[in-house]
Design goal:
The chain is of the alpha/beta class. It has 7 helices and 7 strands; from the N terminus they run βββαααβαβαββαα.
Length: 196
């Protein structure tokens, strides 16, 4: 399983661009990937997305940064030695779709299967099994990333979002839900709640 988080210039993989990619090899969590890139020529930029990821328009257009093509090639080279390549994350369809769209844009072979593992569903199931009421907003699940992190006993992800930090906290949350105990060294000081 590869826990992936991307930051982008908006929410549409067809018209917005990757700006950074972070990933953790779940089975070997010291094996991590992080790179930033400039947006592709003609990509749209949503100001709200920049508020979320903390990049400026100048940073995402910096000609000294790698292209999104180069970052995707580097990421695909990084995954080659990872045995189990199922994509995982809090909202892995978003991350997968941006990486896949960039791959297709440059005619790069896409090696991943369509199925993903999403943190929201794993946490939702855990809450049901433990008899914990699912928080809702307007009749829908309110288990956003920060709510899941709080549920498993770790601090919210720092703002603005960073792709590698996102992948790291999601890795820890998955492990706590799978194994019921802390996983990564940086989170061992936060006990896993026995009852929420």
């Amino acid at each position: 399983m590869i826990v992936i988080d991307v930051e982008a210039s908006g929410v549409s993989p067809e018209k917005h661009s990757l700006v950074s990619v972070g990933a953790v090899d779940f089975a070997n969590p010291d094996n991590r990937f992080y790179e930033e890139c400039r947006i592709w020529d003609g990509a749209h930029v949503d100001t709200d997305a920049l508020v979320v990821n903390g990049f400026t328009r100048e940073q995402i257009a910096d000609p000294r940064k790698k292209t999104d093509r180069e970052v995707v090639i580097d990421f695909l080279a990084w995954i080659k030695n990872i045995q189990e390549k199922t994509i995982a994350g809090h909202n892995p369809a978003f991350d997968r779709d941006f990486l896949e769209a960039a791959s297709h844009r440059y005619h790069i072979s896409w090696p991943f299967a369509h199925r993903t593992i999403d943190l929201h569903s794993i946490c939702y199931l855990d809450m049901i099994r433990r008899g914990v009421e699912i928080p809702t907003i307007n009749g829908h699940s309110a288990l956003n990333s920060d709510a899941v992190l709080g549920y498993v006993g770790i601090p919210a992800e720092p703002k603005p979002h960073n792709a590698l930090t996102g992948a790291i906290v999601e890795t820890e949350a998955f492990a706590r839900l799978f194994y019921g105990k802390p996983y990564l060294e940086e989170f061992k000081k936060y006990p896993f709640p026995t009852q929420n």
